[in-house]
């Protein structure tokens, strides 16, 4: 349920610069307050189990049920018709699907080199509880996404054995033991031994379907229906990523992840990059909403799991324990707080960001963590519609001006408005 | 933090007619949809720990911190000045405080008689897990509030011994054992033995201070500040209960309770009763918001506890276990999810009802369960401002028309509006 870009953003989430100070630093607004003419609708969840009727297509009323409040998550049975599901799957087949994840991702290795950390420094970052030893879960918490290979505690024990890393055999790595390992020792060991698809973070194939003018009517209809559902300005939906169609074969999965990364002042959104200060060192997907469509009913497995939905607290560290890893959707979907069964035509949607309290996008909602449980029987087809919004309002507005080719008025930043129709730039309508 | 009326509403909550079907029955609106001209503001919580600045008094900015989302709960340090706290306590002393709870409440006994249940029927209602035995917690769950005396498992064991109720001494009551007890056997036993203040549901004294025209300026100021804080129509705040001032001596407490009862079609709100159909059999306090002011800093104890704040689920039955009773604020405050320390001048406020999703009051928020922990050192002074709103919009509107002495237009119910200023009925302003 994601493109490849997102993995990069997650690994930065694991980086030392983020952490407890993040929430604090966001509390002080770095830019002066200003009046905006846009206020994004956020649908009320009321309480888990609440059902509201929504009008999405003429002559039909859909029911929308609240599945959780953290994240704000809804299910709409029968959002797509059987025919629509069939057409979307056929269009994706025609276009061809590609592997969602290549065997090895690089780029992250380079980042580590750039930061130029000593083995001691890396050891200290990994050692969460600062006991001078690396427990298995401390390795997993930091190293999994960097390698693009999903490590389990058993894998790690095999690696330790293969590399003779754990000299004293106590299942822990001391600084002395750690120092003897090269930076990419684990990765090289795994690649030498061969990596199976089931050992990757995601095990699926996907493609992208354009939904603008000239696209198949079904795809345009779906886009319009998503706009009605989310009650967001049409321009925001129009300028978002194409529809992503994903196919999981039997045995396919997608371990738990966030569709969007956290956004700091120094981070740019992928979709507004051309309007951003080019010197921003980091980039992440900014997907305010995920709409997930089930294109078929799966014979066995393949649920969408939300491990920490409506948890009282979010504690990233306790997600991965030495024995139970809640992010592992091949093993521990049963321990997730919430699981949605894939049923043909149904849609779920959720907000990956909180509100900022002033009608715009706020902080990342960490509770939006989700994954695809392993498909035990048959094939699973889903589609994703992400609605991209930059948490930096000015950058979103500037981006929309750029793509609609309207002149930007440099003198009057506060009057920026979002166009409701980017396909007809001549029609300018304030929201 | 409540008047005596509320106990009656809670005991009905325990009655057989309520239960799992409640939420279902509320989902089908009993009255046709209509357009309203009022939409109640509900302040956004965003996330636990979120801080928003609010302007309540000229030349000062208060910070309002989100303490929980279930219930929607905020804390505002320095809401009242030291002088204001002093004046409120002095005014309450001048007026005189009365016992918050009399030793024995009747009226409930009569209700049981009216329902005319057989011992077998009562046994079956009490036997939650339907195992043909009454565990201690099954007695506590149902019988505590009916008697107005707070029962602990130890109390019950003493009662069993004194009444020779548990013939076989297994700590459980069988139907045969239960049948030998009279309806009010427990209560009569406790009264004969003598009831201490610490054994009551609440152990405090309180009084009411009128806040309308002619009242002390401090009281009028507080009302105006509450209106600004809650962003609700002034008429709703003006027509609410007076300010309640409560004093807890050392050893004082208030076990966990709801300030408002659930509202069914057949239930009327106390404050709108004069505008309601007089045949409604039940009555409850309808307190949309509770604002709780701490008038002094307590030397020890006296926290406000929210046992299930932000819990993933609400399970009334599991609140009271054989060994741990989360409602007992003399014993188990330490197990509450959230505790607010009483600090002079601070205010907390929360919503006792959810939204109905259309700008009005919805279902009761069960997570708003709260109590006052035992005061271990010194005295505790608090004040409560409740904002009364009838979940039945028509009834609230009719009530406001009645008290503002405006003629009701029988032909056009949909045009009912809430007056913003009831003290000057000539000024009619639509919201």
Automatic annotation (TrEMBL), chains A, B:
<dbReference type="InterPro" id="IPR018247">
    <property type="entry name" value="EF_Hand_1_Ca_BS"/>
</dbReference>
<comment type="subunit">
    <text>Homodimer.</text>
</comment>
<keyword id="KW-0847">Vitamin C</keyword>
<dbReference type="InterPro" id="IPR044862">
    <property type="entry name" value="Pro_4_hyd_alph_FE2OG_OXY"/>
</dbReference>
<dbReference type="InterPro" id="IPR011992">
    <property type="entry name" value="EF-hand-dom_pair"/>
</dbReference>
<keyword id="KW-0408">Iron</keyword>
<feature type="compositionally biased region" description="Acidic residues">
    <location>
        <begin position="407"/>
        <end position="416"/>
    </location>
</feature>
<keyword id="KW-0223">Dioxygenase</keyword>
<keyword id="KW-0812">Transmembrane</keyword>
<keyword id="KW-1133">Transmembrane helix</keyword>
<feature type="region of interest" description="Disordered">
    <location>
        <begin position="402"/>
        <end position="431"/>
    </location>
</feature>
<protein>
    <recommendedName>
        <fullName>Transmembrane prolyl 4-hydroxylase</fullName>
        <ecNumber>1.14.11.29</ecNumber>
    </recommendedName>
</protein>
<feature type="domain" description="Fe2OG dioxygenase">
    <location>
        <begin position="239"/>
        <end position="389"/>
    </location>
</feature>
<dbReference type="InterPro" id="IPR002048">
    <property type="entry name" value="EF_hand_dom"/>
</dbReference>
<keyword id="KW-0106">Calcium</keyword>
<feature type="compositionally biased region" description="Polar residues">
    <location>
        <begin position="422"/>
        <end position="431"/>
    </location>
</feature>
<dbReference type="GO" id="GO:0031418">
    <property type="term" value="F:L-ascorbic acid binding"/>
</dbReference>
<dbReference type="Pfam" id="PF13202">
    <property type="entry name" value="EF-hand_5"/>
</dbReference>
<keyword id="KW-0256">Endoplasmic reticulum</keyword>
<dbReference type="GO" id="GO:0160082">
    <property type="term" value="F:hypoxia-inducible factor-proline dioxygenase activity"/>
</dbReference>
<comment type="function">
    <text>Catalyzes the post-translational formation of 4-hydroxyproline in hypoxia-inducible factor (HIF) alpha proteins. Hydroxylates HIF1A at 'Pro-402' and 'Pro-564'. May function as a cellular oxygen sensor and, under normoxic conditions, may target HIF through the hydroxylation for proteasomal degradation via the von Hippel-Lindau ubiquitination complex.</text>
</comment>
<dbReference type="InterPro" id="IPR045054">
    <property type="entry name" value="P4HA-like"/>
</dbReference>
<keyword id="KW-0560">Oxidoreductase</keyword>
<feature type="compositionally biased region" description="Basic and acidic residues">
    <location>
        <begin position="7"/>
        <end position="27"/>
    </location>
</feature>
<keyword id="KW-0325">Glycoprotein</keyword>
<dbReference type="GO" id="GO:0005789">
    <property type="term" value="C:endoplasmic reticulum membrane"/>
</dbReference>
<keyword id="KW-0735">Signal-anchor</keyword>
<feature type="region of interest" description="Disordered">
    <location>
        <begin position="1"/>
        <end position="34"/>
    </location>
</feature>
<dbReference type="GO" id="GO:0004656">
    <property type="term" value="F:procollagen-proline 4-dioxygenase activity"/>
</dbReference>
<dbReference type="InterPro" id="IPR005123">
    <property type="entry name" value="Oxoglu/Fe-dep_dioxygenase_dom"/>
</dbReference>
<dbReference type="Pfam" id="PF13640">
    <property type="entry name" value="2OG-FeII_Oxy_3"/>
</dbReference>
<dbReference type="GO" id="GO:0005506">
    <property type="term" value="F:iron ion binding"/>
</dbReference>
<keyword id="KW-0677">Repeat</keyword>
<dbReference type="GO" id="GO:0005509">
    <property type="term" value="F:calcium ion binding"/>
</dbReference>
<keyword id="KW-0472">Membrane</keyword>
<keyword id="KW-0479">Metal-binding</keyword>
<dbReference type="InterPro" id="IPR006620">
    <property type="entry name" value="Pro_4_hyd_alph"/>
</dbReference>
